[in-house]
Amino acid sequence: MGARSIGGGAGRRSRRSPRLRLIDAHRAHLERRWAEGCRNPSLLWRELAGAGFEEGYTLVKDWAAQRRKAEPDGGTGKVERGAWQPPASRRATRLLMAEQLSADTTEGNFVARLLESSPALASTVAVAKRLAAPLRRKSDETLAGVLADARATMIRTLAIELGKDFAAVQAALQSP
């Protein structure tokens, strides 16, 4: 007996539940999001509901479970030994803030591709590096100028909060 079919096809009998056929109109969206790495059935269901899907969450949850079982790892989520894994968020932050990374390394390639794919992140990292320099007393650039630029990036909240205590931060930077 073969593996269960989740895609169905012309001339083949599908073993999918008749309930799961209700999802066929939205299959392209689900498959695209799955390929992008979204494995959260709740999020997928909310996206479908926003696009007019009238069925319940359980149907999407069942589709995701069946889809997960059809994957090469059998839905365990385990990655074969030796496969590259993206770094944890703290490590990724350290890599993004590093002075120099060799583009020849896996981590350097990761950072380069990440910044290339997200211009907003690239500008945020550039401003964060500029902000770190005056805070470490390693730059003649004014803190006010950097904070003004930071307000247009993803670290906007940090810039606003530092701006609220600007006099205290400036005094701390000027004291020995």
Distance between the termini: 76 Å
Oligomer: single chain
Unreliable spans are 1-14
- Taken in chain order, the helices and strands follow as HHHHHHHHH
How much of the polypeptide forms β-strand, as a percent range?
Answer: under 5%
Number of DSSP strands? 0
Helix content: 40-55%
Q: Report on the biggest sheet.
A: none
Give the helix/strand class. mainly alpha
From the alpha-carbon coordinates, what is the Rg to the nearest angstrom?
A: 24 Å
H/I helix tally: 9
Would you mind describing this structure in some detail?
It is a single chain. The chain has helices at 27-35, 41-50, 57-69, 89-97, 106-117, 119-135, 143-150, 156-164, 166-174. It contains nine helices and no strands. It has 176 residues and is mainly α. It has three domains: 18-69, no CATH class; 87-117, no CATH class; 119-176, no CATH class.
Task: Summarize this structure briefly.
With 176 residues, the protein is mainly α.
What is the fold's blueprint, element by element?
Layout: H1 27-35, H2 41-50, H3 57-69, H4 89-97, H5 106-117, H6 119-135, H7 143-150, H8 156-164, H9 166-174
Helix pairs in contact: 2-3, 5-6, 6-7, 7-8
Attribute tags:
single chain, 176 residues, mainly alpha, 3 domains, 9 helices, 0% strand
